Amino acid sequence: MNAASAATGIAPATQPGPPLWLLAELTYRCPLHCVFCYNPVDFARTSTELSTGDWLRVLREARAAGSVQCGFSGGEPMLRDDLEELVAEAHRLGFYTNLLTSGVGLTEARASALKQAGLDHIQLSFQDSTRELNDFLSHTKTFDLKRRTAGIIKSHGWPMVLNCVIHRLNIDYIEQIIELAVELGAEYLELANSQYYSWAEINRDGLLPSREQLERAERVTNDYREKLGDKIRIFFVVPDYYETRPKKCMNGWGNVFLTITPDGTALPCHTAKMLKGITFPNVRDMSVQDIWYASPGFNHFRGDSWMKDPCRNCPEKEKDLGGCRCQAFMLTGDAANADPVCDKSPFHPVVQDAVAYAQVPDARRTVVKPLVFRDPKVSRQLAEASSTPLGAHLSAPEKNSRSPPIL
Amino acid sequence: MNAPQAAIALDARPRVAGHFRLQWEEVQKAWVLLYPEGMVKLNGSAGEIMQRLDGEKTVQALIDELESSFETSGLTQDVLDFLAIAQRQGWVKP
Ligand code: SF4
Ligand code: SF4
């Protein structure tokens, strides 16, 4: 028997499997101001959120199309006061329901209501374990609240899953973060290095850790794994800038993941809206079934006929499908290029340059860009300042050019 | 594969572990195990075993039931092997 190897397989390119994962981004509103926020930089442009009725329909349609995991996220999903109603419907439909929250607004009363609605799991995100740094990084006083929230989660019998975004400014405090997770009774701790999209991309120079910092953090994490054994499972996610092969983004474009943004736009991943020239469908106009199987937006990067060199003829193309389309777009200006994390990409020096700069100690940096905190006002300014997505300032090399681009 | 840990006893009464949910998915035509932000799709035989775990039935009774449903014999080792994997993965509590 070989049941253990089953997991989520790769659907053949021509016949995508069902949208197993539904990510419902209920709102872009959020009381926090994370410097690595994954919401689009121009999120403040989104004015109309889907109604309760729209979401209930989306849940039913997605479930009928085969979705089985449902994540409620944001922004801060607790800011939707119909959250309990949506969770209840998702639960009734047979979804496994996950709530991804910073903990703000998760009172005892709402936790009880969510439990009753059938919520299966809460992932609590922590910006950092030290109060000062936490307040600095998230720009609000949230630390005590998170401690309280963790208590509430535990007392309702949910598995305690902590997520902490790691970066240059907090990676040296990895001991404190792990200790805190233990103290809170976490069963899982995800130490995920920031990925450089959206706000984190603007702040990349300030957030990308040095190699030395990374190696130390991994060492410390391994020591704790050994010391703590089964008590807590710790996942450590390295920033892909330090790799030479890209990740298989979203396990394949339009293969498993379906994101619905607050205004109803359907995306193959939560950052895909930045891709110029692709029109993504909206659940207000089209059923989830049609969005998934028949919309040009979702079919755009399925299969491999869209690939260019070096991916097109690469023996490894099934392994990573050329990496992340958004990263290719941000760093090369063309989403159909190889993800420049790959050292076969002629744009790989863009990534190498960023990594080289990450080795320069803060004290020796001549121009230090201040961190940009996620904020609606800043979002509006940034959206106005350039109607082109961030990153598009890099021009692609000449079509036949073999030489790497110059930053 | 690692060596299975101490095999599950024939008189154990295993059940699906907390935080895991087993359900039939019509679209996938398979039993799946759901857990925080994840899913394991079970193959046919794994599904047949898992759906019979209720915390009351013994492993021996489970084997007997499977052998009679499928009009076969000699499933003991297969079932024990699978349960050892399932236990190691944390899907099943003895
Ligand atoms: S990353 Fe921070 S600011 Fe962005 S939605 Fe999450 S908690 Fe809010
Ligand atoms: S060239 Fe393209 S397909 Fe080959 S390893 Fe690099 S990113 Fe993957």
TrEMBL record, chain A:
Protein's gene: pqqE
Subunit structure: Interacts with PqqD. The interaction is necessary for activity of PqqE.
Pfam families listed in its UniProt record: Radical_SAM, SPASM
Residue segments, region Disordered: 384-407
Top-level taxonomy: Bacteria, Pseudomonadati, Pseudomonadota, Betaproteobacteria, Nitrosomonadales
Cofactor note: Binds 1 [4Fe-4S] cluster. The cluster is coordinated with 3 cysteines and an exchangeable S-adenosyl-L-methionine.
Entry similarity comment: Belongs to the radical SAM superfamily. PqqE family.
Cofactor(s) required for function per UniProt: [4Fe-4S] cluster
Binding-site residues for [4Fe-4S] cluster, renumbered to this chain: 30, 34, 37
Protein name (Swiss-Prot/TrEMBL): PqqA peptide cyclase
Lineage top rank: taxon: Bacteria
Cited function: Catalyzes the cross-linking of a glutamate residue and a tyrosine residue in the PqqA protein as part of the biosynthesis of pyrroloquinoline quinone (PQQ).
Automatic annotation (TrEMBL), chain B:
Listed Pfam families: PqqD
InterPro entries on file: PQQD, PqqD_bac, PqqD_sf
Keyword Acetylation attributed: no
GO terms for MF: quinone binding
Pathway named in the protein's UniProt entry: Cofactor biosynthesis; pyrroloquinoline quinone biosynthesis
Keywords: PQQ biosynthesis
GO biological process: pyrroloquinoline quinone biosynthetic process
HAMAP family: PQQ_syn_PqqD (MF_00655)
Similarity annotation: Belongs to the PqqD family.
Function: Functions as a PqqA binding protein and presents PqqA to PqqE, in the pyrroloquinoline quinone (PQQ) biosynthetic pathway.
Quaternary structure annotation from Swiss-Prot or TrEMBL: Monomer. Interacts with PqqE.
Name listed for the protein in its UniProt record: PqqA binding protein
